[in-house]
Amino acid sequence: MVSPPAMKLPLLTRKAEAMKHTPLIKDTLAELAQHKLRTFLTLLGMIFGVGAVIAMLNIGEGAEREALKTIETMGLRNLIVEGRKFDEKTLQEQRKHSLGLNQSDIDAAVATIPGVTSYSAERTLDTYGIYGHKGKSDGIALGVSPSYMALSKLQFVAGRNFTEQENRYAAQVAILGARVAQSLFPDGDALGKPVKVNHVWLQVVGVLAEPYAGSNEFQGIKLGGEQNQLFMPLNTAQTRFKAEPLTAELTSFRLQLSEDANNALSARALDFLLKQRHNDIDDYNIIVPAALLAQQKQTQQIFNIVMSCVAGISLLVGGIGIMNIMLATVLERTKEIGLLRAIGATRRDIKIQFVAESFAIAILGGLLGIVFGILLSELIAFYSDWAVSWSLLAIGLSFSICALIGVAFGVYPAIKASELDPITALQSE
Question: What is the structure's pLDDT at 1?
Protein backbone atom coordinates (compact mmCIF):
# COMPACT_ATOMS: atom_id res chain seq x y z
CA MET A 1 0.00 0.00 0.00
CA VAL A 2 1.21 3.47 -0.82
CA SER A 3 1.81 5.48 2.33
CA PRO A 4 0.05 8.86 2.54
CA PRO A 5 2.26 11.94 2.75
CA ALA A 6 3.24 12.67 6.29
CA MET A 7 1.89 16.21 6.33
CA LYS A 8 -1.45 15.31 4.68
CA LEU A 9 -2.26 12.37 6.94
CA PRO A 10 -3.17 14.39 10.06
CA LEU A 11 -5.44 16.61 7.99
CA LEU A 12 -7.26 13.66 6.47
CA THR A 13 -7.47 12.00 9.86
CA ARG A 14 -9.24 15.04 11.28
CA LYS A 15 -11.51 15.09 8.23
CA ALA A 16 -12.42 11.45 8.72
CA GLU A 17 -13.19 12.12 12.37
CA ALA A 18 -15.25 15.18 11.41
CA MET A 19 -17.34 12.99 9.11
CA LYS A 20 -18.26 10.85 12.09
CA HIS A 21 -18.61 13.32 14.91
CA THR A 22 -19.20 16.89 13.65
CA PRO A 23 -21.47 18.64 11.10
CA LEU A 24 -20.12 18.71 7.58
CA ILE A 25 -20.96 22.33 6.84
CA LYS A 26 -17.49 23.70 7.51
CA ASP A 27 -15.67 21.00 5.55
CA THR A 28 -18.20 21.23 2.70
CA LEU A 29 -17.78 24.97 2.34
CA ALA A 30 -14.00 24.59 2.49
CA GLU A 31 -14.08 22.11 -0.40
CA LEU A 32 -16.26 24.43 -2.49
CA ALA A 33 -14.03 27.41 -1.70
CA GLN A 34 -10.99 25.62 -3.09
CA HIS A 35 -12.51 25.76 -6.59
CA LYS A 36 -14.28 29.12 -6.61
CA LEU A 37 -14.64 29.52 -10.39
CA ARG A 38 -15.94 26.01 -10.90
CA THR A 39 -18.36 26.37 -8.02
CA PHE A 40 -19.63 29.69 -9.38
CA LEU A 41 -20.18 28.30 -12.87
CA THR A 42 -22.08 25.39 -11.36
CA LEU A 43 -24.18 27.80 -9.32
CA LEU A 44 -25.26 29.72 -12.44
CA GLY A 45 -27.58 26.96 -13.60
CA MET A 46 -29.42 26.91 -10.28
CA ILE A 47 -29.45 30.70 -10.03
CA PHE A 48 -31.02 31.12 -13.46
CA GLY A 49 -33.49 28.29 -12.86
CA VAL A 50 -34.70 29.55 -9.48
CA GLY A 51 -34.76 33.14 -10.71
CA ALA A 52 -36.85 32.16 -13.74
CA VAL A 53 -39.36 30.29 -11.58
CA ILE A 54 -39.74 33.18 -9.14
CA ALA A 55 -40.01 35.82 -11.87
CA MET A 56 -42.54 33.75 -13.82
CA LEU A 57 -44.78 33.06 -10.83
CA ASN A 58 -44.57 36.64 -9.52
CA ILE A 59 -45.40 38.19 -12.89
CA GLY A 60 -48.12 35.60 -13.54
CA GLU A 61 -49.80 36.26 -10.22
CA GLY A 62 -49.43 40.00 -10.71
CA ALA A 63 -51.06 39.77 -14.15
CA GLU A 64 -53.92 37.72 -12.72
CA ARG A 65 -54.57 40.22 -9.94
CA GLU A 66 -54.33 43.08 -12.43
CA ALA A 67 -56.92 41.42 -14.65
CA LEU A 68 -59.19 40.77 -11.67
CA LYS A 69 -59.03 44.42 -10.58
CA THR A 70 -59.66 45.54 -14.14
CA ILE A 71 -62.68 43.29 -14.63
CA GLU A 72 -64.07 44.22 -11.23
CA THR A 73 -64.41 47.81 -12.49
CA MET A 74 -66.99 46.43 -14.93
CA GLY A 75 -68.81 44.48 -12.20
CA LEU A 76 -68.44 40.69 -12.11
CA ARG A 77 -72.18 40.20 -11.64
CA ASN A 78 -73.13 42.53 -14.51
CA LEU A 79 -74.25 41.97 -18.05
CA ILE A 80 -73.33 44.94 -20.23
CA VAL A 81 -75.20 45.66 -23.47
CA GLU A 82 -73.67 48.24 -25.80
CA GLY A 83 -75.22 49.60 -28.97
CA ARG A 84 -73.09 49.25 -32.09
CA LYS A 85 -72.18 52.18 -34.33
CA PHE A 86 -72.97 52.23 -38.04
CA ASP A 87 -72.69 54.62 -40.92
CA GLU A 88 -75.76 56.66 -41.79
CA LYS A 89 -76.85 54.54 -44.76
CA THR A 90 -76.69 51.27 -42.80
CA LEU A 91 -78.41 52.90 -39.84
CA GLN A 92 -81.31 54.06 -42.04
CA GLU A 93 -81.84 50.52 -43.25
CA GLN A 94 -81.64 49.06 -39.75
CA ARG A 95 -84.13 51.52 -38.29
CA LYS A 96 -86.78 50.04 -40.58
CA HIS A 97 -86.61 46.91 -38.41
CA SER A 98 -85.05 47.94 -35.09
CA LEU A 99 -85.23 51.06 -32.93
CA GLY A 100 -81.95 50.24 -31.22
CA LEU A 101 -81.51 49.94 -27.47
CA ASN A 102 -84.31 51.46 -25.44
CA GLN A 103 -85.96 51.40 -22.03
CA SER A 104 -88.44 48.77 -23.20
CA ASP A 105 -85.52 46.35 -23.73
CA ILE A 106 -84.54 46.81 -20.12
CA ASP A 107 -88.11 46.36 -18.87
CA ALA A 108 -88.48 43.16 -20.89
CA ALA A 109 -85.16 41.82 -19.61
CA VAL A 110 -86.02 42.56 -15.98
CA ALA A 111 -89.42 40.89 -16.41
CA THR A 112 -88.22 37.73 -18.16
CA ILE A 113 -84.62 36.97 -17.07
CA PRO A 114 -84.34 35.38 -13.60
CA GLY A 115 -81.90 36.85 -11.11
CA VAL A 116 -81.85 40.48 -12.30
CA THR A 117 -81.58 42.60 -9.15
CA SER A 118 -80.85 46.04 -10.59
CA TYR A 119 -80.12 47.88 -13.82
CA SER A 120 -78.76 51.14 -15.18
CA ALA A 121 -79.24 52.88 -18.50
CA GLU A 122 -76.83 55.21 -20.29
CA ARG A 123 -77.08 57.63 -23.17
CA THR A 124 -74.07 59.36 -24.68
CA LEU A 125 -74.67 62.92 -25.85
CA ASP A 126 -73.19 64.65 -28.87
CA THR A 127 -70.91 66.90 -26.85
CA TYR A 128 -69.26 69.83 -28.54
CA GLY A 129 -68.22 71.69 -25.44
CA ILE A 130 -68.00 71.43 -21.65
CA TYR A 131 -67.21 74.74 -20.00
CA GLY A 132 -66.62 76.15 -16.56
CA HIS A 133 -65.73 79.64 -15.38
CA LYS A 134 -62.07 78.61 -15.08
CA GLY A 135 -61.55 76.20 -17.92
CA LYS A 136 -62.74 73.99 -20.73
CA SER A 137 -62.83 70.21 -21.05
CA ASP A 138 -62.76 67.93 -24.09
CA GLY A 139 -64.71 65.30 -22.16
CA ILE A 140 -67.93 63.50 -23.07
CA ALA A 141 -71.33 64.03 -21.45
CA LEU A 142 -73.59 61.11 -20.56
CA GLY A 143 -77.05 60.75 -19.15
CA VAL A 144 -77.23 57.86 -16.68
CA SER A 145 -79.58 56.26 -14.19
CA PRO A 146 -78.82 56.96 -10.52
CA SER A 147 -77.86 53.28 -10.13
CA TYR A 148 -75.08 53.64 -12.73
CA MET A 149 -72.44 54.64 -10.18
CA ALA A 150 -73.04 51.60 -7.98
CA LEU A 151 -73.17 49.12 -10.86
CA SER A 152 -70.01 50.60 -12.41
CA LYS A 153 -68.12 50.47 -9.08
CA LEU A 154 -67.41 54.21 -9.19
CA GLN A 155 -66.44 56.00 -6.00
CA PHE A 156 -66.87 59.63 -5.03
CA VAL A 157 -64.00 61.79 -3.89
CA ALA A 158 -66.42 64.63 -3.12
CA GLY A 159 -70.16 65.25 -3.17
CA ARG A 160 -72.91 62.72 -3.85
CA ASN A 161 -74.83 60.74 -6.44
CA PHE A 162 -78.03 61.75 -8.21
CA THR A 163 -81.32 61.06 -6.48
CA GLU A 164 -84.31 59.35 -8.09
CA GLN A 165 -86.26 62.57 -7.69
CA GLU A 166 -83.60 64.56 -9.57
CA ASN A 167 -83.75 62.04 -12.38
CA ARG A 168 -87.56 62.03 -12.45
CA TYR A 169 -87.82 65.82 -12.73
CA ALA A 170 -84.84 66.23 -15.07
CA ALA A 171 -82.82 68.28 -12.59
CA GLN A 172 -79.91 70.19 -14.07
CA VAL A 173 -77.18 68.64 -11.95
CA ALA A 174 -73.91 66.98 -12.89
CA ILE A 175 -71.21 64.64 -11.62
CA LEU A 176 -67.69 65.16 -12.93
CA GLY A 177 -65.06 62.58 -13.74
CA ALA A 178 -61.62 63.20 -12.22
CA ARG A 179 -60.03 64.54 -15.41
CA VAL A 180 -63.00 66.76 -16.29
CA ALA A 181 -62.98 68.19 -12.77
CA GLN A 182 -59.26 68.95 -13.04
CA SER A 183 -59.73 70.70 -16.40
CA LEU A 184 -62.70 72.83 -15.33
CA PHE A 185 -61.62 73.52 -11.76
CA PRO A 186 -57.82 73.39 -11.39
CA ASP A 187 -58.11 74.61 -7.79
CA GLY A 188 -60.19 71.55 -6.91
CA ASP A 189 -63.26 73.46 -5.69
CA ALA A 190 -65.95 72.06 -8.03
CA LEU A 191 -68.92 71.29 -5.74
CA GLY A 192 -71.84 73.63 -6.20
CA LYS A 193 -70.24 75.36 -9.18
CA PRO A 194 -72.01 75.72 -12.55
CA VAL A 195 -70.80 74.00 -15.72
CA LYS A 196 -72.14 74.35 -19.25
CA VAL A 197 -72.67 71.35 -21.54
CA ASN A 198 -73.40 72.52 -25.09
CA HIS A 199 -76.11 75.08 -24.31
CA VAL A 200 -77.34 73.81 -20.91
CA TRP A 201 -76.07 74.93 -17.51
CA LEU A 202 -75.71 72.28 -14.78
CA GLN A 203 -74.73 72.43 -11.12
CA VAL A 204 -71.95 70.11 -9.90
CA VAL A 205 -73.13 67.86 -7.06
CA GLY A 206 -70.33 65.27 -7.08
CA VAL A 207 -66.80 64.47 -8.23
CA LEU A 208 -65.62 60.92 -8.92
CA ALA A 209 -62.40 59.42 -7.65
CA GLU A 210 -59.98 58.16 -10.26
CA PRO A 211 -61.01 54.57 -10.99
CA TYR A 212 -58.50 51.73 -11.03
CA ALA A 213 -57.10 51.52 -14.53
CA GLY A 214 -54.08 49.28 -14.96
CA SER A 215 -54.67 49.61 -18.70
CA ASN A 216 -56.94 51.61 -20.99
CA GLU A 217 -58.18 48.50 -22.75
CA PHE A 218 -58.88 44.90 -21.80
CA GLN A 219 -59.56 42.30 -24.50
CA GLY A 220 -60.77 44.99 -26.87
CA ILE A 221 -62.98 46.74 -24.28
CA LYS A 222 -62.24 50.38 -23.46
CA LEU A 223 -61.67 51.06 -19.77
CA GLY A 224 -61.16 54.05 -17.53
CA GLY A 225 -63.16 56.45 -19.70
CA GLU A 226 -65.09 57.71 -16.67
CA GLN A 227 -62.24 60.06 -15.84
CA ASN A 228 -62.97 62.18 -18.88
CA GLN A 229 -66.77 62.09 -18.65
CA LEU A 230 -69.51 64.27 -17.23
CA PHE A 231 -72.65 62.57 -15.93
CA MET A 232 -76.14 63.96 -15.64
CA PRO A 233 -79.51 62.29 -14.86
CA LEU A 234 -80.76 60.21 -17.77
CA ASN A 235 -84.05 62.07 -17.98
CA THR A 236 -82.17 65.39 -18.09
CA ALA A 237 -80.17 64.17 -21.08
CA GLN A 238 -83.29 62.93 -22.85
CA THR A 239 -85.43 66.03 -22.32
CA ARG A 240 -82.96 68.93 -22.41
CA PHE A 241 -80.62 67.79 -25.17
CA LYS A 242 -81.60 67.20 -28.78
CA ALA A 243 -80.69 63.96 -30.52
CA GLU A 244 -80.42 62.99 -34.17
CA PRO A 245 -83.61 61.39 -35.57
CA LEU A 246 -82.01 57.94 -36.06
CA THR A 247 -80.25 57.90 -32.69
CA ALA A 248 -81.28 55.09 -30.34
CA GLU A 249 -82.95 55.99 -27.06
CA LEU A 250 -80.06 54.41 -25.11
CA THR A 251 -76.39 53.97 -25.87
CA SER A 252 -75.99 51.07 -23.49
CA PHE A 253 -77.38 49.48 -20.36
CA ARG A 254 -76.27 46.97 -17.78
CA LEU A 255 -78.08 44.40 -15.70
CA GLN A 256 -76.91 43.28 -12.30
CA LEU A 257 -77.47 39.60 -11.50
CA SER A 258 -77.87 37.90 -8.15
CA GLU A 259 -75.04 35.80 -6.69
CA ASP A 260 -76.75 32.50 -7.54
CA ALA A 261 -77.53 33.48 -11.15
CA ASN A 262 -75.66 31.81 -14.01
CA ASN A 263 -74.01 34.61 -15.98
CA ALA A 264 -73.53 32.57 -19.15
CA LEU A 265 -77.14 31.32 -19.25
CA SER A 266 -78.46 34.79 -18.43
CA ALA A 267 -76.36 36.28 -21.25
CA ARG A 268 -77.74 33.71 -23.72
CA ALA A 269 -81.29 34.43 -22.57
CA LEU A 270 -80.70 38.17 -22.93
CA ASP A 271 -79.27 37.71 -26.42
CA PHE A 272 -82.29 35.62 -27.46
CA LEU A 273 -84.67 38.24 -26.05
CA LEU A 274 -82.94 41.16 -27.80
CA LYS A 275 -82.82 39.32 -31.12
CA GLN A 276 -86.56 38.84 -30.96
CA ARG A 277 -87.17 42.47 -30.02
CA HIS A 278 -84.75 43.80 -32.65
CA ASN A 279 -85.97 41.49 -35.44
CA ASP A 280 -82.60 39.71 -35.64
CA ILE A 281 -80.77 42.95 -36.33
CA ASP A 282 -77.27 42.65 -34.89
CA ASP A 283 -77.06 46.20 -33.55
CA TYR A 284 -75.72 45.46 -30.05
CA ASN A 285 -72.91 43.68 -28.22
CA ILE A 286 -73.23 41.79 -24.93
CA ILE A 287 -70.23 41.86 -22.59
CA VAL A 288 -70.03 39.31 -19.77
CA PRO A 289 -67.27 40.39 -17.32
CA ALA A 290 -67.38 37.02 -15.53
CA ALA A 291 -66.68 35.25 -18.83
CA LEU A 292 -63.80 37.65 -19.51
CA LEU A 293 -62.36 36.76 -16.11
CA ALA A 294 -62.66 33.03 -16.79
CA GLN A 295 -60.97 33.47 -20.16
CA GLN A 296 -58.21 35.52 -18.60
CA LYS A 297 -57.60 32.84 -15.95
CA GLN A 298 -57.42 30.16 -18.62
CA THR A 299 -54.94 32.19 -20.64
CA GLN A 300 -52.89 32.87 -17.52
CA GLN A 301 -52.92 29.18 -16.62
CA ILE A 302 -51.52 28.25 -20.05
CA PHE A 303 -48.87 30.96 -19.65
CA ASN A 304 -47.91 29.61 -16.22
CA ILE A 305 -47.63 26.05 -17.52
CA VAL A 306 -45.40 27.06 -20.43
CA MET A 307 -43.18 29.23 -18.26
CA SER A 308 -43.03 26.54 -15.57
CA CYS A 309 -41.75 24.07 -18.15
CA VAL A 310 -39.09 26.53 -19.27
CA ALA A 311 -38.06 27.24 -15.68
CA GLY A 312 -38.12 23.53 -14.86
CA ILE A 313 -35.79 22.79 -17.76
CA SER A 314 -33.44 25.48 -16.45
CA LEU A 315 -33.41 23.82 -13.03
CA LEU A 316 -32.91 20.41 -14.63
CA VAL A 317 -29.92 21.70 -16.59
CA GLY A 318 -28.58 23.14 -13.36
CA GLY A 319 -28.99 19.76 -11.67
CA ILE A 320 -27.15 18.03 -14.53
CA GLY A 321 -24.39 20.59 -14.10
CA ILE A 322 -24.11 19.68 -10.43
CA MET A 323 -23.90 15.98 -11.27
CA ASN A 324 -21.26 16.60 -13.91
CA ILE A 325 -19.11 18.66 -11.58
CA MET A 326 -19.46 16.18 -8.73
CA LEU A 327 -18.46 13.28 -11.01
CA ALA A 328 -15.41 15.27 -12.08
CA THR A 329 -14.69 15.97 -8.42
CA VAL A 330 -14.79 12.25 -7.66
CA LEU A 331 -12.10 11.64 -10.28
CA GLU A 332 -9.99 14.50 -8.95
CA ARG A 333 -10.25 13.31 -5.35
CA THR A 334 -9.82 9.59 -5.95
CA LYS A 335 -6.61 9.37 -3.90
CA GLU A 336 -8.14 11.51 -1.15
CA ILE A 337 -11.14 9.16 -0.98
CA GLY A 338 -8.77 6.18 -0.73
CA LEU A 339 -6.87 7.84 2.13
CA LEU A 340 -10.12 8.63 3.97
CA ARG A 341 -11.26 5.03 3.62
CA ALA A 342 -7.86 3.78 4.78
CA ILE A 343 -7.94 5.79 7.99
CA GLY A 344 -11.46 4.77 8.96
CA ALA A 345 -14.08 6.62 6.93
CA THR A 346 -16.99 4.39 5.93
CA ARG A 347 -18.81 4.28 2.62
CA ARG A 348 -21.69 6.03 4.32
CA ASP A 349 -19.36 8.84 5.41
CA ILE A 350 -18.15 9.31 1.85
CA LYS A 351 -21.72 9.38 0.51
CA ILE A 352 -22.77 11.97 3.07
CA GLN A 353 -19.75 14.15 2.25
CA PHE A 354 -20.49 14.31 -1.49
CA VAL A 355 -24.25 14.65 -1.08
CA ALA A 356 -23.60 17.49 1.37
CA GLU A 357 -21.42 19.27 -1.19
CA SER A 358 -24.06 19.01 -3.94
CA PHE A 359 -26.75 20.07 -1.48
CA ALA A 360 -24.65 23.08 -0.44
CA ILE A 361 -24.29 24.11 -4.09
CA ALA A 362 -28.06 23.84 -4.55
CA ILE A 363 -28.83 25.81 -1.37
CA LEU A 364 -26.37 28.56 -2.24
CA GLY A 365 -27.67 28.64 -5.81
CA GLY A 366 -31.24 28.79 -4.51
CA LEU A 367 -30.49 31.76 -2.24
CA LEU A 368 -28.73 33.66 -5.01
CA GLY A 369 -31.54 32.64 -7.37
CA ILE A 370 -34.10 34.26 -5.09
CA VAL A 371 -32.17 37.53 -5.25
CA PHE A 372 -31.85 37.18 -9.03
CA GLY A 373 -35.57 36.38 -9.40
CA ILE A 374 -36.56 39.47 -7.42
CA LEU A 375 -34.29 41.70 -9.49
CA LEU A 376 -35.49 40.08 -12.74
CA SER A 377 -39.14 40.58 -11.77
CA GLU A 378 -38.54 44.24 -11.00
CA LEU A 379 -36.68 44.79 -14.28
CA ILE A 380 -39.43 43.12 -16.32
CA ALA A 381 -42.10 45.09 -14.49
CA PHE A 382 -40.21 48.35 -14.99
CA TYR A 383 -39.46 48.00 -18.71
CA SER A 384 -42.65 46.20 -19.80
CA ASP A 385 -45.07 47.98 -17.43
CA TRP A 386 -46.32 44.62 -16.15
CA ALA A 387 -47.63 44.17 -12.64
CA VAL A 388 -45.68 42.09 -10.11
CA SER A 389 -47.21 40.43 -7.10
CA TRP A 390 -44.75 38.97 -4.59
CA SER A 391 -45.59 35.42 -3.63
CA LEU A 392 -43.95 33.64 -0.69
CA LEU A 393 -45.32 30.42 -2.18
CA ALA A 394 -43.35 31.04 -5.39
CA ILE A 395 -40.15 31.69 -3.46
CA GLY A 396 -40.62 28.70 -1.16
CA LEU A 397 -41.58 26.37 -4.01
CA SER A 398 -38.64 27.29 -6.22
CA PHE A 399 -36.17 27.06 -3.34
CA SER A 400 -37.51 23.66 -2.26
CA ILE A 401 -37.30 22.28 -5.81
CA CYS A 402 -33.76 23.59 -6.09
CA ALA A 403 -32.73 21.87 -2.84
CA LEU A 404 -34.40 18.62 -3.93
CA ILE A 405 -32.60 18.69 -7.28
CA GLY A 406 -29.31 19.29 -5.49
CA VAL A 407 -29.76 16.19 -3.36
CA ALA A 408 -31.16 14.04 -6.20
CA PHE A 409 -28.36 14.85 -8.65
CA GLY A 410 -25.72 14.45 -5.96
CA VAL A 411 -26.69 10.90 -5.04
CA TYR A 412 -25.14 9.16 -8.06
CA PRO A 413 -21.70 10.85 -7.75
CA ALA A 414 -21.80 10.09 -4.00
CA ILE A 415 -22.46 6.41 -4.70
CA LYS A 416 -19.64 6.31 -7.25
CA ALA A 417 -17.27 7.88 -4.71
CA SER A 418 -18.27 5.46 -1.94
CA GLU A 419 -17.79 2.42 -4.18
CA LEU A 420 -14.14 3.23 -4.92
CA ASP A 421 -11.76 0.51 -3.70
CA PRO A 422 -9.35 2.08 -1.19
CA ILE A 423 -6.28 0.20 -2.47
CA THR A 424 -7.03 1.02 -6.10
CA ALA A 425 -7.76 4.63 -5.18
CA LEU A 426 -4.44 5.01 -3.36
CA GLN A 427 -2.55 3.57 -6.33
CA SER A 428 -4.15 6.00 -8.78
CA GLU A 429 -2.24 8.97 -10.14
Answer: 40
Tens digit of each residue's pLDDT (9 = 90 or more) over 101-150: 999 999 999 999 999 999 999 999 998 889 998 889 999 999 999 999 98
In terms of residue numbers, what domain contains 14? 8-69+295-427
The answer as to whether 365 is a domain residue is: yes
CA-nearest of 103, 149, 157 to 256 is 149
Q: How far apart are CA 111 and CA 409, in angstroms?
A: 67
pLDDT > 50? residue 219: no
* Residue 331: Cβ within 10 Å count: 11
Query: Which residues, 6+ apart, have CB-to-CB distance to 162 below 8 Å?
Result: 144, 146, 171, 173, 175, 205, 231, 232, 233
Which of 364, 344, 338 lies closest to 417, judged by CA?
A: 338
Beta-carbon count within 10 A of 397 CB: 15
Residue 207 CA neighbour count, 13 Å, CB half: 18
Distance CA 309, CA 296 (A): 20
Closest CA relative to residue 401, chosen from 302, 322, 319: 319
**Residue 51 falls inside a structural domain:** yes
Number of domains in the chain: 3
Given a cut of 50, whether residue 86 has pLDDT beyond it is: yes
